[in-house]
Amino acid sequence: MNIETQEVNGITVLPLEGRLDGNNATVAEQTFLKLLAEGKQQFVFDFSGLQYISSAGLRVILVAAKKLRATNGRMVCASLGEQVLDVFEMSGFTAILEMAVTREEAFEKLGAGA
Length: 114
Description:
The chain is α/β, with parallel strands linked by helices. Helix content is 44%, strand content 29%.
């Protein structure tokens, strides 16, 4: 998994594509942790290109949420496809994470209309 992050108005966008599973969850987690270590505090996880997420992928999202809460950062999960949204709903993530239908809505939630 190659993650091409973007900066928009001080918000870091992590577009996740393909499959977020045991084969590439480590890459996604390391990318996030590197950005956090650089001082990034606001994230949009863009799931528009993600077709599948496993428990290993869910763990990455949970680690990100916990680390951001500990540092007063924020993240919004945006543009979840039907299958990924189903997994989020079944795992209870939609109740504990900030969600947005579109990337633009995520920016608005973070206070930076793009």
